[in-house]
Design brief:
Number of domains: 1
Strand order of the largest sheet: 1-2-4-3-5-6-7-8
Pfam families: Abhydrolase_1 (PF00561)
InterPro entries: AB_hydrolase_1, AB_hydrolase_fold
Strand content: 15-25%
Order of helices and strands: HEEEHHEHEHEHHHHHEHEHH
Low-confidence stretches: none
GO molecular function: hydrolase activity
CATH class: Alpha Beta
Helix content: 40-55%
Mean pLDDT: 95
Radius of gyration: 17 Å
Oligomer: single chain
CATH topology: Rossmann fold
CATH architecture: 3-Layer(aba) Sandwich
Protein name: Alpha/beta fold hydrolase
Structural class: alpha/beta
CATH superfamily: Alpha/Beta hydrolase fold, catalytic domain
Distance between the termini: 19 Å
Keywords: Hydrolase
Largest sheet: 8 strands, mixed
Length: about 280
């Protein structure tokens, strides 16, 4: 199914501003919500534009554009928390009592947190990298360090280095992709979100907060996840290395792991057909 950007674009008025999303598929089909990742120039449409047509053949599919990434209005909060809040607001506004979700990287963390805190909303969850702690690999990873450099002092060369760390096949990083991401990354909201998430000062503050907090990190509470979870991973992921999958695979009561060879962080792009087949099998 072909899904057009403009024809699928929707807006939802919220108490903090406008939340934008894309909608495709039969209104009689069961719902599916796609949650995007983070990083320079990211949007939900850019993460999933190659997959939404396939999923829309089976589901009434929604791509939510999180606040603060240059598409939906920012609510001024910390990006991951704002994203989770926006999903709850979105589902209530559209009357969605429960839905399966697919979350890329940060979107997977958002989905896991929703499954822990509001289990009634998440019927099944597919994650794409990003979920869990670094057990055997350095933290921050190579990809996260490149993100930090880009967030601290953005320039085009740093963007290109980060983009190439996201994939196994460097041919995925085309001149068109670089221009598209650079233009989006310089949007004031997107640049601020990047600094809030990955800037050196913000990262240091987050580490201090975690050390002082009495609440355990989200991954330490993954045993509370009640829904079935499919963890998908690229074997050559340099942003969230595959050893991160070991904790969620062991801790989540109903979890399975699918690792794609010759694939980096963007599983839904580099392993498109195999990823879609695995996800549709899991969701059905």
């Amino acid at each position: 199914m072909h899904v057009d950007y403009e024809d699928s674009k929707r807006e939802l008025e919220c108490d903090w501003g406008v939340l934008r999303y894309h909608e495709a598929g039969s209104p009689d089909a069961p719902p599916l919500i796609l949650l995007h990742g983070s990083g320079p120039g990211v949007t939900g449409w850019r993460n999933y534009r190659g997959n939404v047509g396939t999923f829309a053949e089976h589901f009434h599919t929604y791509i939510v554009e999180f606040p603060g990434f240059g598409v939906s209005d920012s609510d001024g909060g910390f990006p991951v928390l704002s994203a989770g809040k926006s999903v709850v607001t979105f589902m209530r506004a559209l009357g969605l009592e429960s839905a399966p979700m697919i979350g890329n990287s940060m979107g997977g963390v958002v989905g896991i947190n929703l499954a822990i805190r509001k289990p009634e909303l998440v019927s099944k969850l597919v994650t794409i990298g990003g979920v869990g702690p670094n057990l055997l690999s350095p933290s921050p990873s190579e990809g996260i360090r490149l993100l930090q450099e880009m967030a601290d002092a953005p320039d085009r060369d740093k963007l290109v280095r980060w983009l190439r760390a996201m994939v196994f096949d460097p041919g995925v990083v085309t001149d068109e992709l670089i221009e598209e991401r650079w233009e989006a990354a310089t949007h004031p909201d997107a640049a601020k979100t990047a600094r809030d998430m990955y800037g050196s000062a913000a990262f240091a503050m987050q580490q201090q907060f975690l050390a002082a907090s009495e609440e355990p990190p989200y991954w330490a509470r993954m045993g509370k996840v009640q829904c079935p979870v499919l963890l998908t991973w690229g074997l050559d992921d340099r942003v969230s290395p595959p050893d991160m999958s070991l904790a969620p695979l062991r801790m989540i009561p109903d979890a399975q792991l699918h690792v794609f060879g010759n694939c980096g962080h963007w599983v839904m792009i580099e392993a498109k057909e195999a990823f879609e087949k695995a996800v549709l099998g899991f969701l059905s």
